[in-house]
Write a structure and sequence with these properties.
146 residues, alpha+beta, Sulfate adenylyltransferase, five-stranded mixed β-sheet, 5 helices, 5 strands, PUA-like_sf, DUF984, ASCH_domain
Length: 146
């Protein structure tokens, strides 16, 4: 099923979203696993690097944004709506946020290692330098359709 077909099925069930725009995207790594965690309700948050929005010329996420989450093959898995967005430094991300991300053992230690392992090479590929005082964008969301 295409993203457009998936969206049409969603708005048939939730017609109040018919006029909303949406973005279709997948997580940066472990796309299938993370999409599954979202569908299961285990993952209700994500974190991205603030500077990457400037480099990619993309707008920052906003409360009310709607997204179609894709798997590694680009197939739609679920529709989410952003419920909270805030910025903080990487080293100030809380245990609570790490738990909401739903990955590994849900601890802050696991979150930090996994995100350092992701951010360091990703920032390097963009010509940026990663450090633990960098600003990150923390986003919380709810599943609307799966």
């Amino acid at each position: 099923m295409t993203v457009e077909q998936y969206w049409e099925k969603f708005v048939q069930l939730c017609p109040s979203y018919k006029s909303k725009t949406y973005e279709a995207w997948s997580f940066g790594v472990d796309e299938d696993e993370l999409a599954d965690l979202v569908k299961q309700g285990e993952k209700t948050a994500t974190t991205s690097g603030y500077e990457t929005y400037q480099v990619d010329r993309e707008p920052l996420p906003q409360v009310g944004d709607v997204s179609v989450i894709l798997n590694k093959k680009g197939e739609p898995q679920c529709v989410i709506e952003t419920t909270r967005v805030y910025q903080t430094s990487f080293n100030a991300v809380t245990e609570h946020h790490a738990f909401l991300e739903g990955e590994g053992d849900k601890s802050l230690a696991y979150w930090r290692k996994a995100h350092i392992d992701f951010f360091e090479p990703y920032y390097t590929s963009l010509g940026l330098a990663f450090n633990e005082s960098m600003i990150v964008v923390c986003e919380e969301f709810k599943v609307l359709y799966k």
